[in-house]
Write a structure and sequence with these properties.
- The chain is of the alpha+beta class and 797 residues long.
- The chain is built from 18 helices and 36 strands.
- A hairpin with a 5-residue loop joins strand 3 and strand 4.
- The radius of gyration is 27 Å and the shape is globular.
């Protein structure tokens, strides 16, 4: 859609109320056997994975600023010398393989790793055989619980991570008088010690590695005791028993004969900002923990619990989704997932609604204002050397994490990403100058806590990922989208200089292609390769479709923003002239949307990345109605990719669902959604990524899947608000409340027998918009603060 009408407030859309009896729980009849079965909790900064054991409980912990390393110089001053060599090899000599080898000489060091904080462990006194076991995660309250009976007594644990009070809270109760006896301990896989803190507390103190290398590149972990590099961190625990006794000994707490116990835990690190050494001393870090814990300990458990629930529901209850349910919905979640895979003719539609809300829950838990953005694993990581460093991978993964944030009415959860982009834009100015001799700012495909902006690889990385320089324009798309949804003029004032800086780099990066167009070189279609004319596999070329799509979109958004802010008229004119000369989208020999500016043959037809499809989604320059020929070509590309085995990772499959939704094909969208559940979803509904004979957790598929379900039900990218554009036949009856559309509009939809029966729109200001359902269109004049209702024929009832 176009620019927001003047005067639209930045206030959040009004919450929708959860329907009575609507249960949104993941639940199981046995404890988690491994980390990827545990249940995630988080407040955006502190994360916890709850295993739910009976004799022994493990709660694995994270703090979002606990990373290896420190600020450093990752720029490569030699890169600028190799840039003209690469361009000559590609544009003049067509020596694409050789150009890739030269690109490797332009690389810098690998980035740092997100680290685990540690583990809170409970060793519970055995009381006989247990029965009636149940563990669950209530998405509506963000509380994980464990229930069981032993020797005719009931035992219960509740765990939550409070955003208002910044503590992990564990509550143990029993129906047996004086029936709670257990040991409490802390440990960490990162170098650390544990000491007694008073008569009822423990403190874990540690020092992060000065450097780690990725698990796929040797995986070295370097502690620097001599120079003290690496940040301090601490975690402080306090036990508050009701009745019984407590003793501290041998680095643990022993609680005996209590009727109830509350455990409070918090954490802090020496992180002071991405551009400052993390040299806050250990004592100051521990003091920060004490201040937080003392404040929380002055409140009752009931008060902590109530404020936590109110804070969570303020966000979570804005959107509800009901797709119906049957008897299978009463089964444990892992059984529902297995049943879905086995019962294609009568699938569990309630599972899709649960998955949708789980994605929203995970975003609330892992991305809050003032904290770090959700990374490759959101907020949760148990390994010192996690897969791909659990970083922010910016050639799709971090962007996909935020695909649902606006449509699913969690706009403020976008703010940590904006902070990351702002930091990248500052570091990226030096990278643009040193590496490329360019103005503006640039960033590449890997980002860490220190906002690393240079290409990684250390001379051995594949250029198709290591040298990709287009993450800046893609990240800037999020700045503009937030404005389109929120109408927040203050946000636009903050965002525009960042967008302008990315555009300045792109203007300098563009060069003549010799045929009257502007092109990019080196250009990489993310992580894909092609057959060079000599038959060899190559990576580096010029003017890939994704480059053209991202740059065109950035220029368009900057021109619109400059007009809205009444600034930079001359700069906007420069962008307009350059935009007119960009290589246009092309249709190749198979009728497909071309991935490269030349119609190269793919060397990996089933590649999981589908970057040339960006203008279909998450971009909006290709739509079935405005650009039917290109939409048809995009469909051919998607069919070819999937037929060759593409979308074999969860995140890639989620991208495919969004593509089908934008092509308004509900049948194919649902087909891919079902495949996401069957092949790329773990028992705790975590997205999975294949890794040899096993699989690993990667959260982007969860967020991409949630965004896709929203796109199937509501779209607003093409200058109109489209109701149920890709509704699958199997979702015959349902309703959704609180989805967000561009223009600051909140939308509720009801449908029956596959047909829209009612649409309700709410807006913050008076303005007109176009709504569409199928082939029907209507012009709607929305009044600020009033409810506007339409029936299935798009008429007022």
């Amino acid at each position: 859609m176009g620019a927001i009408p003047a005067g639209l407030a930045a206030a959040r859309l009004a919450p929708a109320q959860a329907p009575a009896g609507h249960v949104l729980k993941l639940w199981y009849t046995k404890p988690a056997a491994q980390w990827t079965e545990a249940l995630p909790l988080g407040n955006g900064r502190l994360g916890a994975m709850v295993f739910g054991g009976i004799a022994a409980e493990r709660i694995q912990l994270n703090e979002d600023t606990l990373w290896s390393g420190h600020p450093r110089d990752w720029n490569n001053p030699d890169a600028i010398e190799y840039l003209p060599v690469v361009r000559r090899l590609v544009l003049e000599e067509e020596k694409y393989v050789e150009a890739g080898s030269v690109c490797q000489k332009m690389q810098g060091p690998f980035n740092e790793s997100y680290l685990p904080l540690g583990n809170l462990r409970l060793k519970l006194e055995a009381a006989g055989d247990s029965s009636g076991y149940r563990r669950e995660l209530d998405l509506d309250t963000a509380i994980a619980s464990v229930f069981y009976r032993s020797d005719d007594a009931g035992f219960q644990r509740e765990v939550f991570v409070s955003a208002p009070d910044q503590v992990v809270v564990v509550r143990l109760t029993t129906t047996r008088p004086a029936g709670l006896s257990f040991e409490v301990s802390l440990d960490s896989p990162v170098h650390s010690t544990v000491d007694i803190a008073g008569k009822n507390g423990l403190i874990l103190r540690g020092k992060a590695p000065a450097h780690t290398t990725p698990d796929y590149h040797g995986g070295a972990v370097v502690y620097d005791e001599k120079d003290g590099l690496g940040m301090h961190f601490a975690s402080l625990l306090r036990a508050i028993p009701e009745g019984g006794s407590i003793e501290a000994e041998s680095g643990a707490l022993n609680i005996r004969g209590a009727r109830a116990v509350t455990l409070l835990l918090t954490a802090a690190t020496g992180y002071r900002g991405f551009d400052r050494d993390p040299d806050l001393p250990a004592g100051a870090v521990a003091d920060a923990c004490r201040a937080t814990l003392e404040s929380a300990a002055r409140k009752s458990y009931a008060s902590l619990r109530q404020s936590h629930i109110q804070d969570h529901q303020r966000l979570f209850r804005r959107v509800t989704l009901d797709l119906g349910s049957g008897p299978v919905a009463q089964k444990p979640t892992d059984e529902r997932l297995r049943s879905f895979a086995e019962n294609a003719k009568d699938p569990d539609q309630g599972l899709a609604a649960l998955y949708f809300q789980y994605g929203r829950y995970l975003l609330i838990a892992s991305s809050r204002p003032g904290g770090q953005p959700a990374n490759l694993q959101g907020l949760w990581n148990e390994l010192v050397q996690p897969p791909w460093s659990s970083n922010w991978t910016a050639n799709i993964n971090v962007q996909m994490n935020y695909w649902p944030v606006e449509t699913c009415n969690l706009s403020e959860c976008h703010e940590p990403l904006f902070d990351l982009i702002e930091g990248l834009s500052r570091n990226g100015r030096l990278t643009a100058k040193v590496n490329y001799g360019a103005a503006g700012w640039v960033s590449h495909h890997n980002v860490d806590l220190w906002r690393q902006s240079g290409p990684v690889g250390e001379g051995s990385g594949s250029p198709t990922w290591a040298n990709w320089p287009m993450s800046g324009p893609w990240l800037c798309a999020h700045l503009w989208e937030h404005y389109l949804f929120s109408g927040d003029g203050e946000h636009l004032k903050r965002a525009y200089p960042i967008m302008k800086g990315a555009a300045e780099f792109c203007l300098d990066w563009l060069i003549e292609d010799g045929r009257g167009h502007l092109t990019t070189c080196p250009s990489l279609s993310t992580e894909n390769t092609f057959r060079a004319p000599d038959g060899r596999t190559a990576q580096v070329s010029a003017g890939c479709t994704m480059d053209m799509a991202l740059i065109a979109e950035l220029f368009e958004n900057c021109i619109a923003a400059a007009r809205l802010l009444s600034v930079d008229e001359e700069f906007a004119a420069r962008l307009g002239k350059a935009h007119a000369r960009l290589i246009p989208f092309q249709i190749g020999k198979y009728g497909q949307l071309q991935e490269w500016s030349k119609d190269f043959e793919e060397s990996e037809p089933g590649q999981r990345h589908m970057s040339h499809m960006y203008p279909l989604f998450p971009g909006s320059r290709i739509t079935p109605r405005k650009t039917p020929a290109l939409a048809k070509a995009a469909r051919v590309s998607l069919d070819r990719r999937l037929a060759a085995g593409g979308a074999y990772t969860g995140w890639s499959r989620a991208w495919a669902i969004n593509f089908w939704a934008r092509l308004e094909d509900g049948v194919r969208a649902y087909e891919s959604l079902a495949m996401l559940f069957r092949h790329s979803t773990g028992p705790n509904l975590f997205d999975t990524h294949p890794a040899g004979k096993s699989s690993i957790f990667q959260i982007d598929g969860n967020f991409g899947g949630t965004a896709a379900i929203a796109e199937m039900l509501l779209q607003s990218h093409a200058g109109e608000i489209a109701f149920l554009p890709a509704l699958p036949e199997v979702w015959r009856d349902g309703n959704v409340q609180g989805l967000a559309a561009r223009g600051g509009v909140s939308v509720d939809l009801d449908w029956s027998a596959g047909k829209l029966t009612r649409a309700v729109l709410r807006s913050k200001v008076d303005h007109a918009c176009v709504v569409r359902y199928g082939d029907k269109q209507a012009q709607v004049k929305l009044a600020s603060g009033r409810v506007y209702q339409l029936n299935g024929g798009l008429e007022r009832p």
